Amino acid sequence: GPVQGRMEDYFKAI
Amino acid sequence: FEAKWDHASTLKKVIDAVKDLIGDTSWDCTNTGMSLQSMDSSHVALVHVLLKSEGFESYRCDRNVSMGISLNSMAKVLKCAGNDDSVTLRHESESSVVNFAFESHKEERVSEFELKLMNIDTEHLGIPETEYDSIIKMPSADLRRTCADLSQFGDSVTISCAKSDVRFETSGDIGTGNVRLSARGSSDKPETEIAIEMINPVSLTFALKYLNFFTKAAPLSDTVKLCMSNNHPLCVEFPMPEVGYIRYYLAPKIDE
């Protein structure tokens, strides 16, 4: 089934 | 730092809308307002709250400050305020506490509480400006009901946006379910409108558990905006006119 993505996969730490 | 709201109800609703998702967080206070940005413990969702200084009865922030607070404790303190009481938050430089004062409008009752601040290492993420492929504006009660209904059948929902309708689909052990909402205008009641702005069709899958957390913000706003792009986190925005907004971001589920 589909895998849950994480926020850091899309938005980078600043 | 000193900030006063005329009525406690908005702040109570803001805290109720985010406390179960993020727990402890830092409120960043500057002269433009109070904001917080925090991820849930599994880093799947991110919450961004902005309370603009213009939305307060009075607001003063002489030096930027980051106040680490347990939102559950803040909810406990705010339970002691009547909905119509005024709320004043005070924090002195270098102090390890924040003070809450609640005053009834007839001024016969004043209560004060002091909450210990916490040291919190918040990891801030840069949220890029995004041109979304599809933007859906709808009544927040409709989103809340849709997510609650579909949660009975499955853990995930696939949201697909085409030209004039948006489809929410789920499936689970007992069966399947889907809800289709069609664009509808309403000039006399804009809060009941469903507006779909589609540049490119989008289909994304999300965990319903988080969407159900997000819709706890429905009491704050009659309308909600879903902003989607393929292979990008969903943004669910509850606008609070004059006051600010709560934006929730949710990472999609992806096929391996």
What's the arrangement of secondary structure elements?
The complex is a heterodimer of chains A (14) and B (256).
Chain A: E1 3-4
Chain B: E1 2-5, H1 9-22, E2 24-30, E3 33-39, E4 45-52, E5 58-60, E6 65-70, H2 71-79, E7 86-90, E8 97-103, E9 110-116, E10 134-139, H3 140-151, E11 156-161, E12 165-171, E13 176-182, E14 195-198, E15 202-207, H4 208-214, E16 223-228, E17 234-240, E18 244-250, E19 253-254
Antiparallel strand pairs in B: 1-5, 1-7, 2-3, 2-6, 3-4, 4-18, 7-8, 8-9, 10-14, 10-16, 11-12, 11-15, 12-13, 16-17, 17-18
Helix pairs in contact in B: 1-2, 3-4
Q: Shape of chain A from CA axes?
A: rod-shaped
How many helices of chain B in DSSP terms?
4
Structure class of chain B: alpha+beta
Sheet with most strands: strand arrangement of chain B: 6-2-3-4-18-17-16-10-14
Question: How would you characterize the overall build of this protein?
Answer:
- The complex is a heterodimer of chains A (14) and B (256).
- With 14 residues, chain A is an all-beta fold.
- Helix content of chain A is 0%, strand content 14%.
- Chain B is α+β, with helices and mostly antiparallel strands and 256 residues long.
- Helix content of chain B is 16%, strand content 44%.
- Chain B is built from 4 helices and 19 strands.
- A 9-stranded antiparallel beta sheet of chain B has the order 6-2-3-4-18-17-16-10-14.
- Chain B starts with a strand and ends with a strand.
- At the A-B interface, strand 1 of A face strand 19 of B.
